[in-house]
Amino acid sequence: MKILVCVKQVPDMESKFKVNSEGNWYNDADLAWRMNEYDEYAVEQAVQLKEQVADSDLTVLSIGPDRVKEMMKKALAMGCDRGAHIADDDFFKKDPYEIASVIAEYAKDKEFDLIFTGMQSQDRGSAQVGVLVAEILGLPSITTIVDFAFDDGQITVKRELEGGIKAIIKTMAPALVTCQLGLNTPRYPTLPNIMKAKRKELLSTPIAELLKVEGKQETARLYFPEKKGGGLVLEGDVGDLTDQLIKILKDKTAVLA
Amino acid sequence: MKTLLVAEYRDGELLNSTYELVAFAEQLGADSAMFLVGAESALPQYAGTLYLADSSKYSEFNPAVHKQLLLDVIAKEEPDMVVFAHSSYGWDLAPRISLALKAAHVSEVVEIKDGVPVAPVCNAKLRRDVKAKTDKMVVTLQGGAFGLEDESSGSPTVVQIDTDAAAQIEFCGYEEAEAGGVDLSKAEIIVSAGRGIGKPENLAIIESLAKALGGEYGASRPVVDSEWADHSRQVGTTGQTVSPKLYIACGISGAIQHLAGMKKSEFIVAINTDKDAPIGEVADVLIVADLKEFVPAMTEKIKNL
Lengths: 257, 305
Prior knowledge:
The complex is a heterodimer of chains A (257) and B (305).
Chain A: E1 2-7, E2 9-11, E3 33-35, H1 37-52, E4 57-64, H2 68-78, E5 82-87, H3 96-107, E6 114-118, H4 129-137, E7 141-151, E8 154-160, E9 166-172, E10 175-179, H5 191-197, E11 201-206, E12 217-223, E13 232-235, H6 238-252
Parallel strand pairs in A: 1-4, 1-6, 4-5, 5-11, 6-10, 7-10
Antiparallel strand pairs in A: 2-3, 7-8, 8-9
Helix pairs in contact in A: 2-5, 3-4
Chain B: E1 2-6, E2 9-10, E3 13-14, H1 17-28, E4 31-38, E5 49-54, H2 55-58, H3 63-77, E6 81-85, H4 90-101, E7 104-109, E8 111-113, E9 116-121, E10 126-132, E11 137-141, E12 157-160, E13 170-175, E14 189-193, H5 203-212, E15 216-219, H6 221-225, E16 246-250, H7 256-262, E17 267-272, E18 285-288, H8 291-303
Helix pairs in contact in B: 3-4, 5-8
């Protein structure tokens, strides 16, 4: 069985962001990078499926500059067999349609039985790429899964809906699923597996070889939202802060009465 | 400007997000028509044309078939913009439509500024204006971003629609949230723990403060996903929606999904080491401190009042 998992590298969301000089994305200097959280669940599920089905081959794909290879090595150490890096320094200017088209172009002749993606990225959060890849390839796709089972070509998943309700969905491979937080517990790569990952195939392809469409939208401007709330910000000694908060709660609420 | 609003229906009921779409069209001053896979028994209050497909025939969740039903309506109505809620139904169906229409597609729109959709970036720490390069546009709207000023009213003119499109998946039913646990919606005071508590043992200090205040403790999604707290404690879109007299968010950065579940609280206090955390947007008071020091100190002071 052939499996593909698509991952994106994103900044740590706790970072202090700055807008870049063009004003159309965040400045990527001085940021800590990590694997998009949703994609970690996708990698874990793909590795579990590979372990379940004999003679499986699992490819991890990522689009971005050279630094994304570090994150791909983590995916290889988690259990992916090979890495397909699509090199692009201008990845942040590509819209979801362009990104999905590149992935579909890569995947079209490779006959993957299952494709896993995160349900969205933590930075742009469009939640489009997975579904678009499946639609371009003509595959069924199921989004936002929190439970996954595979049995002899049949896929049974639970989709997470609002308010804690889940929908049970079945389909047949080949198919694509997008993974929601809580789907599984992503493993930590062990040291031997980290060493082994260094010897695994990790090939880079320039994006120009796979990008055959034009984007349909662009980020015109990126900026910090105006602070709307006139909320009070308190800093300083913890003892003083507790006194201040108690006074505020007495003045503004009835909860301490 | 003409919009087509994609209403939502689940388990025999029309979802309220439908009315946010109506409010959005009104704010734009746009004409609208509505699309729904639902039932005659649960029609929206809406004074316009409603294209209705029967959910007992086409299933409540069936993307390939709903896509074809919707594309047929789009071909007839020729809207400039197709509008979805940014929900499990909307973000699933919208990309299928934008691809088929070759239209720009902007997700989780929070605002339209001079005709340009605005979307959040990086957990709402940043925002971006998105310029469409196509005439037609597909948008999904962030829950709660476009509220209705007045109750929507009127009865729709219903046009029944059908398709013979084939399904790609089989919808086998719903699994309800686990019963039992706490009903946070009844609590007057909630102290909630976020990822910032760092480890499960620290949930105890959150619980102690909640107890000292006579309230309940809640949790954000990462805390529940890590199984540090029960799902019934989860506040947010996939958990409970609460509006207590006092909500204290400890180590919660303020993801949109969490904010949607608690922003109607009467008074909100946030304790966070990050002064720029999005929770500051809804907090009446933001205390910049390490919760592991502040919360136990606060608990002691409350006990001694």
